[in-house]
Amino acid sequence: METKEILTKVKSGELSVEEAELLFRRQPFEEMGYAKLDTHRKIRSGFAEVIFCSGKADEHLLQIFGRLYEQDGEVFGTRASREQYEMIREKYPQACYDPVSRILKIEKEGKARKGKAAVCTAGTADIPVAEEAAQTAEYFGTAVERIYDVGVSGIHRLLSSLDRIQEANCIVAVAGMEGALASVLGGLADKPVIAVPTSVGYGASMNGLSALLTMINSCANGIAVVNIDNGYGAGYLAAQINRLACPGCLHPCRNHTGWEPDL
């Protein structure tokens, strides 16, 4: 149960102050032996814990997935395999899997998405990382505009979409090869650019290192860089920026004038 929901129920009389106090006194993590679930993360940061699925034992993943789902009514996992999805689906048939982004999730129906983040790729080979970013931002309540295959080798393609990009509260630039897309976008827009180097490219790209170095050394202002192929990190940061820029998108436990619950 979220903090705001608990306080609302206290206000309406559905919960006593003593009952609410017991809920707040629960330890901030759940001990599972092999994992410690950060059950208070959403209270602290506004974003619930996410599962990195790759490398997890099936039984561990199944139990972690189930506990997070029971707690929030939804759950989000990254870097999942189809085999992991099939295993989860046996117990949770409502689970959804995207083989492109490798995201495995159960999401609440009718979730509002506000504001706008533009997710751009240099090429179609960058789409898996871009989709991880886009779907992460969407899961955390941000509306996303996808603008794919607008790399600098045909810059007219990017310029034709510039009005859509400039309307966004932040921009995610996903590029491999030499990674120049982020610099171009940084010079064309007045919004923060989150640069995501990908491991797409030939030998001298060094599995994304060339793009990473280009983005870090960009002469354009307002560019932040995440790790190679880190679409999740970019989507998370985009959702945070969007919450700051968009009225109604802030931390669900806070209003726009301070840190008190908006009851």
Uncertain stretches of 5 or more adjacent residues = 252-263
Distance between the termini: 16 Å
Number of strands: 11
Report the β-strand fraction as a percent range.
15-25%
Fraction of residues in H or I helices: 25-40%
Largest sheet: 5 strands, parallel
State the shape: globular
Round the Cα radius of gyration to an integer and report it: 20 Å
Main structural class: alpha/beta
Mean pLDDT: 87
Topology as a string of helices (H) and strands (E): HHEEHEHEHEEEHEHHEHEHEH
The order of strands across the largest sheet is: 8-7-9-10-11
Total of DSSP H or I helical runs spanning 4+ residues: 11
Describe this entry's structure for a reader.
- Helix 6 crosses helix 11 (231-245).
- The strands form 3 sheets. Strands 8-7-9-10-11 form a 5-stranded parallel β-sheet, sandwiched between helices.
- It is 39% helix and 17% strand.
- Strand 1 (30-31) and strand 2 form a beta hairpin.
- It is an alpha/beta fold.
- The radius of gyration is 20 Å and the shape is globular.
- Residues 252-263 have low confidence and may be disordered.
Please outline what is shown here.
With 263 residues, this protein is an alpha/beta fold.
Pick out its properties.
263 residues; 4-stranded mixed β-sheet; 11 helices; 39% helix; disordered C terminus
SSE layout and pairing:
Elements lengths: L2 H10 L4 H8 L5 E2 L4 E2 L3 H5 L5 E2 L5 H15 L2 E4 L3 H10 L4 E3 L4 E4 L7 E8 L5 H13 L2 E6 L7 H5 L2 H5 L3 E6 L5 H8 L4 E5 L11 H8 L6 E3 L5 H15 L18
Parallel strand pairs: 3-4, 7-8, 7-9, 9-10, 10-11
Antiparallel strand pairs: 1-2, 4-6, 5-6
Helix pairs in contact: 1-2, 6-11
